[in-house]
Amino acid sequence: MSLQNTQNEFAEMILSGYQSPDLIKPACNILVHKNNITASLIRTLHETYPLIAKLVGNDCFRTTAENYIWQYPSRSSNMHDYGEYFSNFLVEYPPVQNLIYLPEVAKFEWICHALYFAADQAPLDMKLLQSVPRGQLEKLHFVLHPASRVIKFHYPLLRIIDLCNEKISGTINIAEGGINLLIIRRELDITLVTLTSAEYVFLNAIQDNHSLSIAMKAAVNIDPDFNLREKLMGWINDKTIVDLTITN
User: Fold this and answer.
1) Residues facing residue 142 across a β-bridge
2) Which of 25, 93, 102, 112 lies 20 to 30 Å from 244, alpha-carbon distance?
3) CB 95 within 8 A of CB 64
């Protein structure tokens, strides 16, 4: 048997629980590897999703993580890559079906995790912006910082976070509404910036690679007093917007 075939069979044994009497002797040794890998992946998920662990409790989280691992085994040697589909898993996982806000919390935590390891980028050179001919402005596309994400949440995420961090007590009415957020890494810290509806549609259009003209129209449609110059200068100065391109 080739090394590649041996490695594939070993991986299948770990993931499925099937024990080959010829590959590892005694066959029970496979349980040692399986338990070590499972424990390592559970620890990784716990570190990535601490809010979920607080919301459901450690015992429930461990069981949930174990079920996730069997359905979504690790396919990368980099542990930072593991856990991307936890939010999707929670949508269908029966024991937490009544906690309808959990998938959004998990989505938030994965975004923060991914942004922490995203690339950095230098600020936008204002001379580059000033050099754009006035007739080309409609073809102008801005670029958000690679360690940023604009997203709409349908539940009161910030209050849920405060509850988990014991900044508030009591209960939260999840029907009270959602929030628009810019999640961005500044230096080594993840920063949460609440956005108005107009700010959200503008930055979301930029995030989707729409032109300045389209983004502006979307924002003004919500807020006729949207001050483009003021907003742009603020987002350029704080490195939310870091680059620009002009399309043909």
Assistant:
1) 244
2) 112
3) yes
